[in-house]
Structure prediction request, 282 residues.
Amino acid sequence: MKFIIVMVAAAISALSQTAAPARPSFEIASIKGNSTARPHVGDEPGGRFVATGVPLTVLIGYAYPGTRVDFSAKPAWADTDLWDIEAKAPEGSVPPRTKLPDFTKPDTINLMVQSLLEDRFQMKVHREIREVPMYEVTVAKGGLKMKLSEDQTPPAPGDGPPRPGTAPRGGMRMARGDFQGAAVSMENAVLTIGQLAGRRAIDKTGLPGLYDFHLQWTPDVFSTPLPFEPRGNAAPPPPPPGDPAGPSLITAIEEQLGLKLQSTKGPVEMLIIDSLQKPSAN
Prediction:
């Protein structure tokens, strides 16, 4: 009996010491600063990741989709310094897409960008639960103004490129003061509206289906949002500048989309960035 107990204890000890699966990493990655190109970030066929003219905060948002991020002490350059990145995954490590990406969960490329941030930017993080302001999103009194897409079949990567200046089917496209979606679920639309508004947003509409929408507003401060552009296609041209006398974001959401944002508070697991360093360019 003692021998059996010793063997079981040894097996448990061995299992507890087994290393967790390593997070995937890019095979090669080039990082350069000071781009003058229009901001863009996304993955491309063949396991490639390309970012041009984006600040570190946008890269972090791309690496951790659907995650609320805060900083223990954010360096000023995290918002102001722009980076160009070209990276490639090991051959065969990124499976071909059979459906459009889920913007709420990290996929293989997202995880590789996490590894790149830890390796090249020396990013150190931890997670904690915080009570934070958030929005509950409901249908406004005037009724929903987002339109149900004519085609309600699930979007797929083979649906083809969008018309110039429009979002791809099943995707979203964002620029300063301009947000578009085509055949997007209410859950994903609300998630991104929360990112625009700077808070987590919870879908309380209860509405199924896929929706088309186009939201335009006048930003009160300059920001560089994460562009939702067709993966594997050239970036479409930016929309024209917004009307300086146009509506604020919250007003536009209610007037143009028919959605109401109600302030509330709730517990959220947050990713806390503890430290960062500028990478050496290569």
The longest strand covers residues 259-275. The mean pLDDT is 83. The helical segments are 2-16, 56-63, 77-80, 108-120, 186-197, 249-257.
